[in-house]
């Protein structure tokens, strides 16, 4: 049987409002869905876009017939995109990133659009992460910069895909079987991963027993480094352990 635990962290950073949104919904019969969204658009439109996208993503998966396949997650992302498009006007063309996650039936899958990331750790070791839909990530793919330079690249915030844009194209990952050891998942906006290195995520995970402790340890690093006008930051942590 898969046992889960989760926690959410969000902070305003140095901005006037928090345009990030995160949520976790436990599913009947076990399992859960989670989402982190980072709104874009200014004039508080980003705040509306991220909350709308996140809530619609969770609502759809919570009400759907639960079979965590790629088509279901992709459809949930499209529903979130439609919800954001319905709110747009000529004056406010708000958009949002999306990092969505689903755990059920002894496996996990996830979907993302933009540069909000999902990290997967297996037995405490980083197993992989989503690749940003951004100009800087493309520069890595083209060999122009290496992975370590993304955080400081001049075009890091230029997105190639987003909800509410003409370039909406969700990317689905998985499935990851959960029947071997323990798994940890981190969903986070760019305002979070910008200041916390992957090796520090691993080190914090090794010294923490709960998702909340893990997030708090990483937030301490973030707050020590963030500038006065730093971005909003948001993260959701999920632990999954296979027990008899």
From TrEMBL:
Spans traversing the lipid bilayer: none
One Pfam family in the UniProt entry: PP2C_2
Gene3D superfamilies xref list: PPM-type phosphatase domain
Residues in PPM-type phosphatase domain copies: 5-240
Name of the protein: Serine/threonine-protein phosphatase
Species this protein is from: Candidatus Limivivens intestinipullorum
């Amino acid at each position: 049987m898969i046992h889960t635990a989760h926690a959410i962290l969000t902070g305003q950073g140095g901005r006037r409002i928090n345009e990030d949104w995160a949520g976790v919904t436990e599913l009947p019969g076990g399992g859960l869905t989670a989402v982190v969204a980072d709104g874009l658009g200014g004039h508080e439109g980003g705040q509306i876009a991220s909350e709308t996208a996140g809530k619609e993503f969770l609502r759809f998966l919570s009400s759907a017939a639960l079979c965590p396949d790629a088509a279901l997650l992709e459809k949930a992302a499209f529903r979130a995109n439609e919800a954001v498009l319905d709110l747009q006007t000529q004056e406010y063309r708000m958009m949002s990133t999306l990092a969505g996650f689903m755990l059920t039936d002894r496996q996990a899958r996830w979907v993302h659009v933009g540069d909000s990331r999902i990290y997967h750790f297996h037995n405490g070791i980083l197993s992989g992460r989503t690749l940003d839909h951004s100009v800087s990530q493309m520069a890595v793919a083209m060999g122009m910069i290496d992975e370590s330079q993304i955080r400081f690249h001049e075009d890091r915030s230029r997105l190639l895909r987003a909800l509410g844009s003409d370039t909406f194209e969700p990317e689905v990952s998985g499935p990851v079987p959960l029947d071997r050891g323990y798994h940890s998942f981190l969903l986070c906006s760019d305002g979070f991963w910008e200041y916390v290195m992957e090796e520090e995520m691993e080190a914090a995970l090794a010294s923490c027993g709960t998702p909340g402790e893990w997030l708090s340890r990483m937030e301490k690093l973030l707050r020590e480094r963030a500038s006065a006008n730093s971005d909003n930051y948001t993260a959701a942590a999920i632990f999954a352990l296979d027990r008899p």
